[in-house]
Amino acid sequence: PAPWPPSGPRRPSSSLPSAAAATSSPPRFIRPQSHPSRSSPHRLVRKIQGFILLLIAILLLLCRALQVLREIEGDLSGFKCGLAHLFLQHTSASLTINENYDSDVQADTETFLNKIVPEGRSAPWKHTMEGPDDMPAHIKSSMFGCALAIPITDGHLNLGTWQGIWLCEHRDHASARKIVVTLNGI
């Protein structure tokens, strides 16, 4: 894939807000996770609108991750060797690195998570003040984590051939997310 276009002046670190608009070309490094089909009081409505909700969730998450990568591209170009640290400031979403080529990996990962961390009104969780999907989202976030450290080599994130950064949204409805990026190196 072609390198990202340069963006803005060089900054040693950034605190980046979520994007608000969709993009037509998804980034190479991102395969977000979304959960529009989980059980809830409006399950029938979600089944009918599931495909539309899935597309919206994927576009929103792609935009957020794309904005992060575009924001740091200019900064990355200044490093021959270094480390990029990404920190997600939330407890119901997560960051992870996984295969980014076959979309079945994302679907299988979501299936696995939903089997080992049940949700809905019949789930055994006590923390339900923010909805039946909130406690499962906290557990899933803890499983993957909220931080990544990625080597920088010759101005690019040094990921493996099939690797991509996943921004995983574990709530039924995505909220604004914020990622802090710190770059170190020479």
TrEMBL record:
> Coiled coil: which residue ranges?
none
- Chain positions covered by the region annotation Disordered: 1-41
Q: Biased-composition ranges for Low complexity?
A: 10-39
- Do you know which Gene3D superfamilies this protein is assigned to? YjbQ-like
Q: What is this protein called?
A: Secondary thiamine-phosphate synthase enzyme
Q: Which organism is it from?
A: Aegilops tauschii subsp. strangulata
